[in-house]
Amino acid sequence: MKTTRQHSLLQLLTRHDTLTTEALASALGVSKETIRRDLKALQTQGKIVRRHGRARLLHTQQDGGEPFYARRKSHYADKADIARHALNWIEKGMTLALDASSTCFHLARQLPDIPLTVFTNSLPVCQEMARRQHITLICSGGRLERKNRCYVNPALAAQLKPLEIDLFIFSCEGVDANGEMWDSTPYNASWKAHLLRRAHQSLLLIDKSKFYRASEAKIGSLAQVTQLITDARIPTGQP
Questions:
Q1: Which residues of 188-202 are buried (b: 16+ CB within 10 A; e: fewer)?
Q2: What's the pTM?
């Protein structure tokens, strides 16, 4: 019964692209609570994306995710606190890679002006680092995606050749029940996957709202991450 209903739910989303919880409940003749349970299960399986009381099928989309400024305001205090704990991993002389997440922006704002090299594709992080006199800033450059405030540059592999990345610090759109990390755009997912392979160590900064969620593009597995910093209870069997 449940499997049949979830299959019908997916068919509805295929036809309509996006629907509210209320509309799905009405169409399938069940309560909103039942639909919410189904949606949670389907999101955990990586089949749908849920946002603001609506659901849609998971598919590749170049312009997915919330705008940067909306993400920066969401869970502001939690992200700032997580970023503060990440400072313990940073030492003078290190080469860091920071992604374009709002949590890394919070980290950049707290980063002390000490001798470091910072590589990033984030415009807001670049603007913060430009204020530090002792930090060497390397920007990925490329085409600016204004919505996400990040640069898109296909020449990433060539840029990283001369760099030894000591620590890659990043966030993601979600981590599903299988420990797979997801991002809202294929390019950012690819960027993070490449840095995960390239860096000596990696640090995932993730607030409690990101667990048991999937998104547009898969980054990789939590097993690839050296350590995570979170305000949530760490899922059993994860680092």
A1: bbbbbbbbbebbeeb
A2: 0.71
99 and 26 within one domain: no
Q: Are 205 and 82 in contact (CB under 8 A)?
A: yes
d(CA 120, CA 104): 10
My answer on whether 7 and 95 are in the same domain is no
Structural domains in the chain (count) = 2
Residue pair 2/8 in contact (Cβ under 8 Å)? The answer is no
> Is 237 among the domain residues?
no
Are 166 and 52 in a shared domain? no
Element (H, E) at 197: helix 186-198
Query: pLDDT tens digits, residue range 126-149?
Result: 999 999 999 999 999 999 988 888
